[in-house]
C-alpha cells in the first residue's frame, strides 16, 4: 500500500531534499510540496495525502495553526500530521500535539528513521513513545495538580462517558504503558487492551496516544511526576 505524503516547509532546500528522500521509497508517494500553512491547507484539501510532514515556523499561517485546521475538518479525518522540527522548540511541539499532530521528528534525523516515521504515522500510531510524550507534557503542559474539569466542559462531558475500566486505561496510558504493559497490568489480552485504548480515543476525540496523555493531564487524572 502506497503512502501519499505532502511536504510542508518554508525552506526550498529542505522541501526538495525531504521530497527526494521520501520519493525514492517505492511505498511512498510525495504528492506535493507547500511553503506555508495556507498553501498546505489548500493542497491537503485538493490532494488528500495520508501524511503531512509539517514544519512549525513558517511565514503567514504557521504549522501549528495549519495542523489545528486539518484536525477540526471532518473531511480530513484520515489525514495525519507529522511535525518536522529542530527539537529546539519543545513547547511548540506540545502545542502541535494539542492541535492534533500525531508526533514529531527532527530535521537532522537519519533518513531511514524519517521514512519509518511516515509509515508509523500512516499506520495510525503516535510517533512518540508514551514515555517521551509524558516527559514533554510534564515539562510544558502542567506544572502542578489540576482541578477536575467541570461537567459542562467538553472534556468533562467526554470523561463522563468513560467506564471505570476505560478511565483506568487512560491513567495507565498517561503513565507510559504500552498495550502489552496494559495487558499484563490488567490481566487481559493484548487485543482487549488495544480495544480499550481505541474506545477511550474515540470517546475523547483523540487521534492517538499522545493526545490521550494530554487529555489525562488536563483532566487532572495524573500529575507531573506520574502520580494519579
Describe this structure in words.
The chain is α/β, with parallel strands linked by helices and 228 residues long. The chain contains eleven helices and five strands, in the order βαβαβαβαβααααααα. A five-stranded parallel beta sheet has the order 2-1-3-4-5, with helices on both faces. Mean pLDDT is 84; it is low at 142-148.
Oligomer: single chain
Give me the number of helical elements: 11
N to C succession of SSEs: EHEHEHEHEHHHHHHH
Mean pLDDT: 84
Helix content: 40-55%
Shape: globular
Largest sheet: 5 strands, parallel
Strand content: 5-15%
Strand order of the largest sheet: 2-1-3-4-5
Distance between the termini: 41 Å
Keywords: DNA-binding, Phosphoprotein, Transcription, Transcription regulation
Domain Response regulatory: 4-122
Protein name: Response regulator transcription factor
InterPro entries: CheY-like_superfamily, NreC/VraR/RcsB-like_REC, Sig_transdc_resp-reg_C-effctor, Sig_transdc_resp-reg_receiver, Tscrpt_reg_LuxR_C, WalR-like
What brief labels describe this structure?
Sig_transdc_resp-reg_receiver; 228 residues; 5 strands; alpha/beta; single chain; globular; 51% helix; 11 helices; Tscrpt_reg_LuxR_C; five-stranded parallel sheet
Give the SSE layout.
Elements: E1 3-8, H1 12-23, E2 28-34, H2 37-47, E3 51-55, H3 63-72, E4 80-85, H4 90-99, E5 104-106, H5 111-122, H6 130-140, H7 154-160, H8 164-174, H9 179-186, H10 190-204, H11 209-218
Parallel strand pairs: 1-2, 1-3, 3-4, 4-5
Helix pairs in contact: 2-3, 3-4, 6-11, 8-10, 8-11, 9-10, 10-11
Amino acid at each position: 500500500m502506497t503512502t501519499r505524503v505532502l511536504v510542508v516547509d518554508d525552506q526550498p532546500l529542505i522541501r526538495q531534499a525531504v521530497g527526494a528522500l521520501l520519493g525514492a521509497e517505492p511505498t511512498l508517494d510525495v504528492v506535493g510540496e507547500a511553503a506555508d500553512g495556507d498553501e498546505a491547507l489548500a493542497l491537503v484539501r485538493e490532494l488528500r495525502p495520508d501524511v503531512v510532514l509539517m514544519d512549525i515556523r513558517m511565514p503567514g499561517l504557521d504549522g501549528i495553526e495549519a495542523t489545528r485546521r486539518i484536525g477540526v475538518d471532518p473531511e480530513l479525518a484520515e489525514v495525519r500530521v507529522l511535525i518536522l522540527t529542530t527539537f529546539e522548540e519543545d513547547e511548540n511541539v506540545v502545542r502541535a500535539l494539542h492541535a492534533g499532530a500525531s508526533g514529531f521528528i527532527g530535521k537532522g534525523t537519519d533518513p531511514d528513521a524519517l521514512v519509518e516515521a511516515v509509515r508509523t504515522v500512516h499506520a495510525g500510531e503516535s510517533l512518540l513513545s508514551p514515555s517521551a510524550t509524558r516527559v514533554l507534557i510534564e515539562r510544558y503542559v502542567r506544572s502542578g495538580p489540576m482541578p477536575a474539569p467541570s461537567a459542562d466542559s467538553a472534556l468533562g462531558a467526554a470523561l463522563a462517558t468513560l467506564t471505570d475500566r476505560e478511565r483506568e486505561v487512560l491513567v495507565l496510558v498517561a503513565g507510559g504503558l504500552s498495550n502489552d504493559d496494559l495487558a499484563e497490568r490488567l490481566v487481559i489480552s493484548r487485543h482487549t487492551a488495544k480495544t480499550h485504548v481505541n474506545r477511550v480515543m474515540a470517546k475523547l476525540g483523540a487521534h492517538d496516544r499522545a493526545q490521550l496523555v494530554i487529555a489525562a493531564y488536563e483532566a487532572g487524572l495524573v500529575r507531573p511526576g506520574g502520580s494519579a
